[in-house]
Amino acid sequence: MRKRHVDEDHRGSARAFVLVLLTVSMLVHPGAQRQTSVGHADAPPYFGTLNSHSARAQSSFTTGIRTIEFVINWSRYEPQDGVFSQDYIASKQRELRTWLDAGMRPTLSLSLHYTPEWVCGLPGATFRDQFGTTTCQPPNMVFSETVRARIKRAIEHVATDFGAENFWAVRVQNGAMQGEIGYPPADGNRFWAYDDNASGGPDLPRTIPPRPHPDWVPGDVSTTPAQVREWFNWYMAALADAQDFQIAEYRRRGFTGPFWLIMPGSCCHVNEVERYLDGHLGDANQFIGQGSARWYMVRALKEKANVGVYTSSLAEAGGAQDSCQPGDASLSERDPVVDGFGAGRWIGFIAQKFGLLAAGENPGPAQSNGYGYGTGMMEAAARIAHSCGYAAMYWAHEDDLYSGGLLSHYESVIDHYDGG
To answer: pTM of the entire structure?
Structure first.
């Protein structure tokens, strides 16, 4: 294995490395530039880790890792409404300085799924499904302007406390599941669009119209298929609007991206969704109600400049169709071949079709299958990321690299895609 070049001047001040991104620049080698067209396997992904620890910053950098997840736990950051913990801020500022001094380019993760208790007491903070079930996990930033105002304030404080210029990328999510994009997770055919604001209440964000066909519920066959699609497109556009809102706020505060839209799993391909729509959503699986119809959400996005779709299920299962192919761009989303795309290729396909970046992470040990967790999954994830022209690949999780004996293998994988 060749000796990796390490910058001699990477230990400058914490704000000395402002990155100007032409979609995505600065690869593993200083000065190298990335092909900006997603889907071309002519450049390596930018390798990183999740659940990263600054005590390992220098050793990780030497390995070839160039970006890490910098987590800001919302509940610890703002334990009371409008009161930000100065002790927590000071601790995270020291951590950020360590990363920067080691040469890392952090990826910001304002972790909204660590929701402060006070948020659930805000007006409109709970979702309600068609059966009357309510939940504040995640808090309802889709249909509540009040909740959005608190998130806007948190983003503003992050920019002030940590400096937007110190982050290479930003993870965007609305607190669903384990920090991903979606409506509340639940068993059964549940759709979370029946709270008062979604029905046109006073706190509905002005960028979202009230729910169409207000008396209709999934499974009701009294509406036409066209009306069902109108309703579902509204449902997915509302979820997209919540992500547009965050990206716009980050931009306003000086963050330039890339902005990663964090999406779990490979569900749901267009043909599958269309079959459920033909059935008036009466037998839709739980992932449809959770907002996992990625194609429909991405189609509704307004914020697309330097935005990337991001899978949290890269190399989730073995299969011949998991790597992107040169002919993918010519396929229609309704082509039966696309139905077999695994999560990594599906995200790469969506990125191509909508002119977005792509990135991803492998599932953790508890969710792994197919390749199994370890070197096989690592090699597959890197291969898929490279074949699909991903801008970045993050390994979940850093602890497993160091405690599971995978660090040297990650170095060899990085070395392979960094030119050998």
So the answer is: 0.90
